[in-house]
Design brief:
Elements: H1 3-11, H2 15-32, H3 34-43, H4 47-50, H5 65-75, H6 81-112, H7 118-128, H8 137-146, H9 154-161, H10 164-174, H11 179-187, H12 192-203, H13 205-221, H14 223-230, H15 239-247, H16 254-285
Helix pairs in contact: 3-16, 5-16, 6-9, 6-10, 6-13, 7-10, 10-13, 13-16, 14-15, 15-16
Main location: membrane
Pfam families: BPD_transp_1
Keywords: Cell membrane, Membrane, Transmembrane, Transmembrane helix, Transport
Length: 290
């Protein structure tokens, strides 16, 4: 379908349908944004508004006391809050970068390099997607313990590098690249590494940008699940792991918990908004002409 047919199809649609679609999508977007709006308002609510009945959705007397109390809680800790923040950013960024590179390199081999066990290996990758993280906890712990990586950053980074979801996603995208393009690059003298890095990776940019969203969000919000099992040193824990310690302080810490919730949500949302525009733009402009 060419551009003229798309424009003709677009012009044939009535303005009434456009208005109805706009109203419908606006209502859906407003409804889906309610949890985010409530979280933002709750972070600035004083305790009397947080425990008000009926519950208040919009804050009446906004205050920064919840954030001040949060700073006070961490000021009494022997591990500074900046250390938790560093651990969170380091694990999220390093794990995401390593996962994208390893998954894309392995996907290129499975998708474009012919060898004997190609299909059986990919079948194992697909089969591994059916197992939940709870099933693999014991094998992961035994492997990390055998490698001597307990109570280190590698206890979280290594499982993140080996996640098969990114491998499956990248392989499915790379299979859509014509073999003729890769063969032409080889004729011109390009090496496998150059083909992978300078030809294949730019074409599958929507895939690895989407993978960045999934991986970063998973490591940012679920780091505490892994750190509680594999990391015992307080100076190596993440902000999300400390979130549970703050919440265990009772109702007196409801305000700081609301502030931490907003802080933990802000980074994944910002990354999603930034990468989403890139994904949409790339998917609309990176097609290959026949």
């Amino acid at each position: 379908m060419n551009v003229k047919s798309l424009l003709k199809k677009r012009l044939n649609r009535s303005w009434t349908v456009d208005i109805l679609l706009f109203v419908l999508l606006t209502g859906v977007a407003a409804f889906m944004s309610l949890p985010l709006i409530y979280t933002i308002n709750r972070a600035f609510m004083p305790l009397n508004e947080i425990f008000a009945f009926p519950p208040k959705f919009i804050v009446s007397n906004p205050t920064f006391k919840n954030f001040k109390d949060l700073v006070g809680i961490f000021s009494d800790s022997w591990v500074p809050f900046s250390r938790y923040v560093f651990n969170t950013f380091f694990i999220a960024i390093s794990g995401t970068f390593g996962h994208v590179i390893i998954a894309s390199a392995a996907a290129y081999v499975l998708a474009k390099v012919k060898f004997s066990f190609n299909k059986p290996l990919f079948a194992l990758v697909v089969m591994s997607l059916m197992f939940t993280p709870y099933v693999t906890q014991v094998p992961n712990y035994m492997t990390i313990s055998y490698l001597g990586m307990l109570d280190t950053y590698w206890a979280i980074l290594l499982p993140a590098f080996g996640s098969t979801l990114g491998l499956y996603l990248m392989k499915q995208f790379m299979e859509q690249i014509p073999d003729a393009l890769i063969e032409a690059a080889k004729i011109d003298g390009a090496t496998e590494y150059r083909i992978y890095w300078q030809i294949v990776m730019p074409i599958v940019k929507p895939a690895w940008m989407t993978l960045i969203i999934f991986s970063l969000q998973s490591l940012w919000t679920n780091g505490s699940v892994t750190s509680h099992k594999y990391i015992y040193s307080e100076q190596l824990r993440t902000v999300d792991a400390v979130f549970g310690q703050i919440a265990s302080g009772g109702i007196a810490r409801t305000g700081p918990v609301a502030a931490v919730t907003l802080l933990m949500m802000s980074v994944p949302i910002a990354v999603f908004i930034f990468t989403q525009s890139r994904v949409i733009q790339t998917m609309s402009t990176s097609g290959l002409k026949e």
